[in-house]
Amino acid sequence: MAALLPVPLPVAPLAAPQRLVEWLQERFFPGAMDFTTARWLAFLLIMLVSVAVGRFGVALIFSRIRRFSAHAKNQLMVPALEAPASTLVVLIGLVAALTVVPLWDAVPHLVQLGEQGALSAVVLWGVACAGGAMIDHFAVGAREKRPHVAAFIPLIKRTVASFFVVFSVLVVLESLGFEVKTFLTGLGIGGLAFALAAQDTIANLFGSFVVMLDQPFYVGESIRVLAHEGTVEEIGLRSTRLRTDKRAQVVIPNKTVAAEVITNFTRMPQRRVDTVLGVTYDNPPDRIQPALEDLRALLRADRGVHPGQIVVSLSDFSDSSLRVQILYFTADPDWESHMAVRERVNLGILRVLAKRGVTLSYPSPVIRLDPAAARAAVPQSPAGS
Questions:
Q1: What's the angle, vertex CA 252, arms to CA 251 and CA 255, rounded to 5?
Q2: Which residues in 339-382 belong to E strands, given as ranges?
Q3: Close Cβ partners of 280 (under 8 Å, ≥ 6 residues apart)
Q4: 372 in a domain, yes or no?
Q5: What gap in Å lies between CA 108 and CA 114, rounded to an integer?
């Protein structure tokens, strides 16, 4: 891979601050101090002024800006730019101060490279803060109007930040005088080898984009992927994290999430309940039929039961019992509400069956013997024994 080679920069002529120091020394302090001492004193004075302006002047200016922009929609932009602006003012003062010290004369190339790299880094920092403030402002609005979209904003922000960091590093290297084009050419060959070695990581990264674009689930929803079922806690660049009902955390790679079947329980309009009761054969029809009517009335009267489909039917004859099928949907798909409705309905079923005198069968076979056959099967003891 080709190395990064520094590009030589031309030596800058004597800067204006340095000429200003010479003029002030000759005008006000002729013969009082040597030129080198005057330059270091000027360096300290410029740095003190730049720090004071960067610390207090910028804070005062931004407080006025916040007051004028109090009614603006994006209230995050101004605070995000205050720190980069303050650092930029101090850095400009440092650049001006460095031009008057002997260090500029000794190693002008290094000083100029450092100035260019630092200025580029601070400007890119300001751009990153502005972009982050815009994304955060969009997230605030999304949480109020489109909460399902807001769940993916942290993933989008991390993705944009990752690409911007790489771009910023290349820009700073270019400002430092390195041949970035040569480096990128060599990086293309190395990138192929890296891609082959990191196939799983790249697959997970593309899987996260598939999840973000297709949106099969959001943070906070209850889903099942393969044999794992739980509530989505986080959707990251590499994996998706679920919290199971046992309070354990399951980490699933995004390539698996993108390729497998996903069951989203939260998006169900209702939850289905399908119950089969076994009724003993000794219950006469004129006792079973009114019980079935009462069960239908029970389900229709419950507000937690969706009225769209209610089935109560004597469905089949099994070996040991009559089978009564009860099918309905709970109106609220929430698991706790669903279980509360099921409990209420089941207690109501028991009351109806008890009121009508309908007995349920046990989950075991019952053997009935004819009385005469039963007496014959039991040996009789001899008289008088």
A1: 150
A2: none
A3: 321, 322, 359, 360, 361
A4: no
A5: 10
Backbone dihedral angles phi then psi of residue 274, each to the nearest 5 degrees: -130, 110
Q: How far apart (Å, rounded) are the C-alpha atoms in residues 293 and 352? A: 10
Q: How many domains does the chain have?
A: 3
Of 218, 140, 128, 135, the C-alpha closest to 168 is 128
- Two structure tokens written together for 5: 């080679």
Closest CA to 300 of 325, 267, 326: 326
Give the span between the Cα atoms of 90 and 55, in whole angstroms. 8
- Between helix 108-145 and helix 77-98 the angle, nearest 10°, is 180
Helices then strands, each counted (H, E), the chain: 14, 8
Q: What is the CATH number of the domain that holds 303?
A: 3.30.70.100
Query: Does 212 share its domain with 153?
Result: no
Q: Is 176 in the same domain as 303?
A: no
The single-letter code of the amino acid at 22 is E
Query: If we measure between CA atoms, which residue out of 134, 96, 95, 135 comes closest to residue 114?
Result: 95
User: Measured between alpha carbons, how far is 86 from 154 in angstroms, rounded to an integer?
Assistant: 27
Element housing 116 (H / E): helix 108-145
Q: Which residue matches tokens 């009614």? A: 71
Same domain? 40 vs 159 = yes
Q: Give the residue numbers spanning the domain of 163.
A: 16-197
175 and 318 share one domain? no
Point out the domain boundary residue: 177, 197, 217: 197
Residues 158-217: tens digit of each pLDDT: 777 777 787 778 777 777 776 766 666 665 555 555 555 556 777 777 787 788 777 888
Cα gap 177→168, rounded to integer Å: 14
Q: Would you say the pTM of this structure is higher than 0.85?
A: no
